[in-house]
Structure formats: C-alpha cells, structure tokens
Input
Amino acid sequence: MRLRFTARALVIGDRAGTVVPDGVLDVEGGLIRWTGPAAEAPDAGGAERVELPGVLTPGLVNAHSHAPMVLFRGQGEGLPLDRWLREVMWPREARLTGDDVETAMTAASAEMLGNGVTTSVEMYFHPERIAAAVGVTGARAVIAAPLIPLPGLPPLDEQLAGAVALATGAPDDGTVEYGIGPHAAYTVPLPVLRAAAEAAREHDLLLHLHVAETATEGAGLFAAHGSSVPALLAAHDVLGGRVLAAHCVHLDDADLDLWQEYDVAVAHCPASNAKLASGVAPLRAMLDRGIRVGMGTDGPASNDGLDLLADVRLAAALARLAGRSATALPAAEAFWLATGGAAEAIGRRDLGVLEAGRRADLVHVDTRDLAFEPVGDPRDLLAHLVWSGGGRHVADVWVGGRQVVRAGRSTAVDVDALRAEVVARAARLARG
Ligand SMILES: [Zn+2]
Output
C-alpha cells in the first residue's frame, strides 16, 4: 500500500533540528520513500492521501523502560529507596505471573503509542509475553531478556541460555528484537556479565544493563577490586559490541573515556534519576565526546510517566541548569535524543528519522493548540514540541505505515478494559 502524507511541517528528527514547512512524506511497503517540501514532491500516482493539520515527527524511541511496572505506578510513594524496594516492589514482583506482565505491557504499550512512542527498549520478566503484548498493540520493542539472581528464578547460566535461545529464534522483521539484559554489575557476577557480553557479540544482540545509577552502588565492587564499574566491565571484556548502559549518572572522566573508547551507548533517564534522587547525569559531557545517548523513561514505578516528551523537556532543563547556560542543550538536540539519537543509541538506524529508507513510524502532533503558537520561524514548532508540547498533543500514530492510534485512541485495543484489568491485577499483587 502506498500513502502520501501532507502536513503543516515535517520535524525530521535529525541532530540539526531540520523542520520542513508544508511537507510531504511518501510511504510504501512500510518504509519511508520520499520526504520534502510539497512544492518539490514527485507525482503521487495512485497513493492514498492522508492530510494532516499538524506536524509529522518520527515515532519516538524510548531507550530504557520496564513498562509492565504500570502495575506498581506510584506505589510506596515517599519511602526511602531501600524500604521502597524491600517493602513495596520486591514482594509484588515475587507474585508476578506471565499473564500479569502481558496485560500490563499491553496497557503500557497502548499508553506509550498514545504519547508517540513507537519503539521501547524493555527489560523485564517474561520477555516473550512482552513481545506478545506489542504484537497486539502494533508497537515495536527491543526486549532485553533479564538476567538477575532472584529466589524462584533459574540459575544465571540457564537464564542466559534461555535469553540467547529466545533472541536467535525470533523472526527478523524489525518488530520485536530480543537482547540480553543483565541487571547490573552489583547484582550479576562478573563472569556471567562476561559470558552474556560474549553471547551478545556473537549474535549481534543488544547488551543492556544498568550502570552507575546511584553514587553508592559500585562501592562494594570498588572495595573488592579497586576500580570503578566501567573499568571492571572493560577489564572483564563486557564492553565492545552493542552495549547500552542505562543511567550513567555517576561517571568520572576516566569512565567516560572508556565509554568513548568502547562506543558504549547511554540511556539517559532524568525523570527517574530525579524522582529517586540519584543525581544528574553528565549529559553535555557525554554528547561532546560523541557518546551515543538516547532518552529513556525508565519503569513507570520510578518516573512515573511514559510520556517521553516530558523527559526530553526535563533533560533540556537539567542540562541547562547543570551547565548554567541556556545553550547547554538546544531544543533540536533534546528532541533528537528521543528520535534519531535514540535510534543510534540502541543500534537501530532503521528508526528515528524521517528520511527515505527508514521505517515509516510516524507521529502526527495536532498543533491546533495555543501550546504551538506563535510560529514566526518554522523551527518554532520544534521549540514548542520540546518546551510546551507533550503526549497529550499526539493525535495519530503509524508503525511501519500501519495506523495504530487514530484521534488519540488505540486502533487495536480497548484501553478502558485494559485499565480495569491492570487495576484488578495490581490489587492482587499488593494483597499477596
Ligand atoms: Zn531501569
């Protein structure tokens, strides 16, 4: 099927922040075939026309999420981190079933699509049920099968073998991709991390782990080995290949040198880092070194939203505060961190930018709203997207050219029914 989109403007999703007023975008076979100004568009032929009053942007890419945790949203608010984990999160997670994960992911995926997020990197239990959920909503996911030593779970070597089997058996259609998700260096032993990294490199899989989220989590490893977590990961052959490290709040210059040397990508999660008082990651320093960075929401128990545009705004605000400069992170670069930059960070250059050859993951933001006025220069639209826009302005979403959100509603699932199911399951998990 061929589609011709016309829009008030195309926001391309590149680092420079290109905005094409009065834009046209052609789609065929799930891919973008042409983009540019209407005045230069080729003959539309028999393409079906989609005329949009607002702007068309790339589908947003959420580089770090545990979306099924919508089951725990807001629970234990105000507790210190250790009590929140021990008293609220872990007891509930110990009771989780595959059905809980699939239902919660279906609801969360619909919520993300409604906010313009078409791809998310997920790390959570029952990865095959996460895949089933996005199969229903029509989203894409990169699912890092978790490796974590917990009572009731198989030994880590079995978990790793299961993750590799899942990844190598999945169809290669760009919809669901599996990776390997060892939780972190302070929870997963170094030899397991090394084996996971070796397997990831062998099969070209994403290796996704948490690094330096808090100031104290590396203390035990430092006491035992005398080096920082990044240095330990390098020494144990964990780096190299497609490595995506979430958070990276507490890295010094030597750690950043290693990230640069091994081309480690970062999932930047400022809302979670703020809510849990973890700190502010050195975003500007990472970008200046050419380190690949993508925006992440983190799980909805520690954000608590799944509205990536809100995280983009927070990232820009915090980078400016930290750098004491209104130019520390321009709106264009902030938006790129959730589109083209995020696609690079997760190693998926088929996503994130409106350009010919990439997948037709498209978001129509309805700009008939005071939040998007005035527009003196077309690039004001991009500034408004970052500083006054949000998921609430997303009207329509396509994934691979297929419409999955129409006028703000999922075309695939009954969001109200899903909410009722999440409510009932959350109550059961809380009761025990
Ligand atoms: Zn996380």
Q: What stands out?
A: The first helix runs from residue 81 to 94. The chain has two domains: 2-59+359-410, 64-345. The pocket of zinc ion is lined by residues 64, 66, 210, 246, 298-299 (CB under 6 Å). The first strand starts at residue 2 and ends at 11.
